[in-house]
Amino acid sequence: AAEWVFDHADDLGADPRHIAVGGDSAGGYMALAASLRLPGRFACQLLLYPLLHVDDDVWAETLFKDARVVGRLAVQYIRAQLATAAKGVPSLQGCANGGTPPTFIVTGGALDPVRPDSVTYAAALKAAGVPCVFRDYAAQPHSFLNLTHLSEPACTALADTAALVGAALTRPAQ
Protein backbone atom coordinates (compact mmCIF):
# COMPACT_ATOMS: atom_id res chain seq x y z
CA ALA A 1 0.00 0.00 0.00
CA ALA A 2 2.81 2.42 0.84
CA GLU A 3 4.55 1.76 -2.46
CA TRP A 4 1.26 2.43 -4.26
CA VAL A 5 0.87 5.77 -2.46
CA PHE A 6 4.37 6.83 -3.50
CA ASP A 7 3.79 5.63 -7.07
CA HIS A 8 0.52 7.60 -7.27
CA ALA A 9 1.46 10.66 -5.21
CA ASP A 10 0.91 13.00 -8.17
CA ASP A 11 -2.53 11.51 -8.86
CA LEU A 12 -3.40 12.01 -5.19
CA GLY A 13 -2.14 15.58 -5.15
CA ALA A 14 0.53 14.66 -2.60
CA ASP A 15 4.14 15.71 -2.40
CA PRO A 16 6.08 12.44 -2.00
CA ARG A 17 8.60 14.29 0.18
CA HIS A 18 5.85 14.95 2.75
CA ILE A 19 4.30 11.52 3.23
CA ALA A 20 4.22 10.01 6.71
CA VAL A 21 3.42 6.54 7.94
CA GLY A 22 1.79 5.70 11.24
CA GLY A 23 -0.24 3.23 13.18
CA ASP A 24 -1.37 2.25 16.63
CA SER A 25 -0.58 -0.98 18.48
CA ALA A 26 -0.22 -3.75 15.85
CA GLY A 27 -0.67 -1.02 13.23
CA GLY A 28 2.46 0.58 14.67
CA TYR A 29 4.30 -2.64 13.84
CA MET A 30 3.03 -2.45 10.27
CA ALA A 31 3.95 1.24 9.95
CA LEU A 32 7.48 0.62 11.22
CA ALA A 33 7.83 -2.40 8.93
CA ALA A 34 6.78 -0.21 5.97
CA SER A 35 9.36 2.45 6.84
CA LEU A 36 12.06 -0.23 7.12
CA ARG A 37 11.03 -1.70 3.78
CA LEU A 38 11.10 1.73 2.09
CA PRO A 39 14.08 3.46 3.72
CA GLY A 40 14.40 7.17 3.13
CA ARG A 41 10.92 7.52 1.64
CA PHE A 42 8.80 8.70 4.57
CA ALA A 43 9.09 12.21 5.98
CA CYS A 44 8.34 10.83 9.44
CA GLN A 45 6.62 8.02 11.26
CA LEU A 46 4.06 8.06 14.07
CA LEU A 47 4.01 5.05 16.35
CA LEU A 48 1.13 5.07 18.82
CA TYR A 49 1.79 2.54 21.59
CA PRO A 50 3.44 0.29 18.99
CA LEU A 51 3.69 -3.47 19.24
CA LEU A 52 7.32 -4.10 18.34
CA HIS A 53 7.50 -7.89 18.62
CA VAL A 54 5.34 -10.98 19.10
CA ASP A 55 8.05 -13.02 20.83
CA ASP A 56 6.11 -14.97 23.46
CA ASP A 57 9.26 -15.68 25.46
CA VAL A 58 9.88 -11.97 25.99
CA TRP A 59 6.27 -11.39 26.99
CA ALA A 60 6.37 -14.38 29.38
CA GLU A 61 9.58 -13.16 31.07
CA THR A 62 7.94 -9.86 32.01
CA LEU A 63 4.45 -11.21 32.64
CA PHE A 64 3.78 -9.42 35.92
CA LYS A 65 5.43 -6.14 35.02
CA ASP A 66 3.91 -3.23 33.17
CA ALA A 67 0.49 -4.81 32.47
CA ARG A 68 2.21 -7.51 30.43
CA VAL A 69 -0.44 -10.08 31.42
CA VAL A 70 -3.02 -8.34 29.25
CA GLY A 71 -0.44 -7.69 26.53
CA ARG A 72 0.62 -11.31 26.45
CA LEU A 73 -2.98 -12.41 25.94
CA ALA A 74 -3.29 -9.99 23.02
CA VAL A 75 0.00 -11.20 21.54
CA GLN A 76 -1.11 -14.83 21.90
CA TYR A 77 -4.28 -13.93 19.99
CA ILE A 78 -2.23 -12.20 17.27
CA ARG A 79 0.10 -15.21 17.06
CA ALA A 80 -2.90 -17.54 16.74
CA GLN A 81 -4.26 -15.43 13.88
CA LEU A 82 -0.90 -15.59 12.15
CA ALA A 83 -0.72 -19.35 12.85
CA THR A 84 2.59 -20.74 11.61
CA ALA A 85 3.62 -17.39 10.15
CA ALA A 86 4.20 -16.02 13.67
CA LYS A 87 7.57 -17.76 13.83
CA GLY A 88 8.60 -15.70 10.81
CA VAL A 89 7.39 -12.36 12.19
CA PRO A 90 10.60 -10.52 13.06
CA SER A 91 11.09 -8.39 16.11
CA LEU A 92 11.42 -4.74 15.17
CA GLN A 93 12.82 -3.86 18.59
CA GLY A 94 16.42 -3.77 17.36
CA CYS A 95 15.82 -2.08 14.00
CA ALA A 96 16.73 1.48 14.95
CA ASN A 97 19.27 2.86 12.48
CA GLY A 98 20.28 6.10 10.83
CA GLY A 99 17.92 5.41 7.91
CA THR A 100 14.85 5.47 10.13
CA PRO A 101 12.71 8.57 9.52
CA PRO A 102 12.13 11.10 12.29
CA THR A 103 9.86 9.31 14.72
CA PHE A 104 7.09 10.26 17.11
CA ILE A 105 6.23 7.66 19.73
CA VAL A 106 3.22 7.94 22.05
CA THR A 107 2.58 5.55 24.94
CA GLY A 108 0.29 5.18 27.86
CA GLY A 109 1.54 4.49 31.35
CA ALA A 110 1.41 1.48 33.64
CA LEU A 111 -1.61 0.07 31.81
CA ASP A 112 0.13 0.08 28.45
CA PRO A 113 1.85 -3.29 28.02
CA VAL A 114 3.98 -2.12 25.07
CA ARG A 115 5.36 0.90 26.93
CA PRO A 116 8.62 -0.79 28.09
CA ASP A 117 9.48 -1.79 24.51
CA SER A 118 8.61 1.69 23.25
CA VAL A 119 10.90 3.31 25.84
CA THR A 120 13.75 1.03 24.75
CA TYR A 121 13.09 1.67 21.07
CA ALA A 122 12.97 5.46 21.55
CA ALA A 123 16.34 5.33 23.34
CA ALA A 124 17.80 3.21 20.51
CA LEU A 125 16.57 5.70 17.91
CA LYS A 126 18.14 8.60 19.77
CA ALA A 127 21.41 6.64 20.13
CA ALA A 128 21.36 6.05 16.35
CA GLY A 129 20.99 9.80 15.79
CA VAL A 130 17.37 9.59 14.62
CA PRO A 131 15.21 12.54 15.67
CA CYS A 132 12.69 11.02 18.06
CA VAL A 133 9.99 12.63 20.17
CA PHE A 134 8.69 10.34 22.89
CA ARG A 135 5.46 11.24 24.68
CA ASP A 136 4.44 9.20 27.69
CA TYR A 137 0.93 9.77 29.03
CA ALA A 138 1.46 8.10 32.39
CA ALA A 139 -2.15 7.93 33.55
CA GLN A 140 -3.47 6.47 30.29
CA PRO A 141 -4.04 2.84 29.22
CA HIS A 142 -3.06 1.18 25.95
CA SER A 143 -5.17 2.49 23.04
CA PHE A 144 -6.24 5.56 25.01
CA LEU A 145 -6.32 7.74 21.90
CA ASN A 146 -9.38 5.76 20.83
CA LEU A 147 -11.21 7.23 23.82
CA THR A 148 -11.33 10.89 22.80
CA HIS A 149 -15.13 10.86 23.13
CA LEU A 150 -14.72 9.99 26.84
CA SER A 151 -11.38 11.39 27.93
CA GLU A 152 -10.10 14.96 28.01
CA PRO A 153 -6.47 13.75 28.43
CA ALA A 154 -6.90 11.65 25.27
CA CYS A 155 -8.17 14.73 23.39
CA THR A 156 -5.21 16.77 24.61
CA ALA A 157 -2.73 14.03 23.71
CA LEU A 158 -4.25 13.65 20.25
CA ALA A 159 -4.12 17.40 19.60
CA ASP A 160 -0.50 17.59 20.82
CA THR A 161 0.51 14.62 18.67
CA ALA A 162 -1.26 16.01 15.60
CA ALA A 163 0.54 19.34 16.08
CA LEU A 164 3.94 17.63 16.24
CA VAL A 165 3.36 15.55 13.12
CA GLY A 166 1.74 18.46 11.30
CA ALA A 167 4.78 20.64 12.00
CA ALA A 168 7.11 17.89 10.74
CA LEU A 169 5.14 17.51 7.52
CA THR A 170 4.97 21.23 6.78
CA ARG A 171 8.70 21.84 7.12
CA PRO A 172 10.45 22.43 3.80
CA ALA A 173 11.41 19.09 2.25
CA GLN A 174 15.08 18.25 2.21
Summarize the entry for a quick read:
With 174 residues, the chain is α/β, with parallel strands linked by helices.
Describe this structure in words.
This protein is of the alpha/beta class. It contains seven helices and four strands. It has a four-stranded parallel β-sheet with strand order 1-2-3-4, sandwiched between helices. Strand 3, helix 6 and strand 4 form a beta-alpha-beta unit. The longest helix has 19 residues. It is globular and about 50 Å long. The two termini are 24 Å apart. The model has no long low-confidence stretch (mean pLDDT 87).
Secondary structure layout:
Blueprint: H1 2-7, H2 9-12, E1 20-24, H3 26-37, E2 44-48, H4 56-61, H5 68-82, E3 103-108, H6 115-127, E4 132-137, H7 152-170
Parallel strand pairs: 1-2, 2-3, 3-4
Rg result: 16 Å
Helix fraction by DSSP (H/I, runs of at least 4): 40-55%
The strand order across the widest sheet is 1-2-3-4
Task: State the end-to-end distance.
Answer: 24 Å
Number of DSSP helical runs: 7
Shape: globular
Number of strands: 4
What's the average pLDDT?
87
Order of helices and strands: HHEHEHHEHEH
Strand content: 5-15%
